[in-house]
Structure formats: C-alpha cells, structure tokens
C-alpha cells in the first residue's frame, strides 16, 4: 500500500491501538496489497475511552466486557456483581488496554 494512505490511517485511527504497536501496524499495512484497503477502512474499532466510561458507569454489570466482546468475562462480572465491586474497580485500569488489544486482533483478522 502507499505510505501516504497508511500514514493517514494511523493518524486517524492511532488512538484505537497501543503506541508501541503502531510501527508494526504501519509495516504490515505497507506490505499489504491494495485489495484489502477497503476492508481495512470499513473495519469498526472500539473506542477505549468509551469502554472506560462504560466501565465506570456500569462496570459491575459487566457491560464493559460485553462491549468489547469478552462475553465470558462479562457474564462472570454480571453474576458476581463485578466481583463484589473489586473486579469492577480493577477493570477501570485494565479496560482501555483490553479494548486496544481487541482492536489489534480485529486488524490482524482483516490483514
């Protein structure tokens, strides 16, 4: 792919990924062929900030985990009321990283 397209993608979607993953993403996108460009642009990534807000508001119900696709953990949080609140508080610090990791996995599936 063209480096200019890749740089525009990274500038507009960089917040969805961990900073240390961006150089690797850039290299993989440059090596990808142009036929995948439309699929890459159509991919919907989860916003880590939204996940954090949902976690703060309704984290004890597991909605934050359901939002990013961790259904098993979401059910566990729902049944235990967020681990009696402890798991919900711990997730305030973990949910943004988990969301970014899910976004990386989604991008890898497209590539």
From TrEMBL:
Residues 45-93 form the TM2 domain. The chain crosses the membrane at residues 49-68, 74-95. Signal peptide: none annotated. GO terms for cellular component: membrane. Its main location: membrane. It is found in: Membrane. The keyword Transport does not apply. Keywords: Membrane, Transmembrane, Transmembrane helix. This is TM2 domain-containing protein. The lineage of its organism: Bacteria, Pseudomonadati, Bacteroidota, Cytophagia, Cytophagales.
């Amino acid at each position: 792919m063209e480096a200019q397209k890749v740089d525009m993608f990274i500038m507009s979607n960089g917040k969805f990924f961990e900073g240390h993953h961006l150089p690797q993403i850039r290299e993989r996108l440059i090596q990808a062929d142009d036929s995948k460009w439309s699929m890459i642009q159509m991919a919907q990534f989860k916003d880590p900030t939204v996940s954090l807000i949902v976690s703060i508001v309704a984290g004890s119900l597991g909605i934050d985990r359901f939002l990013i696709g961790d259904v098993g953990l979401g059910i566990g949080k729902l049944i235990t009321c967020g681990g009696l609140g402890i798991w919900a508080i711990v997730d305030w610090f973990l949910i943004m990283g988990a969301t970014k990791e899910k976004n990386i996995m989604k991008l890898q599936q497209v590539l």
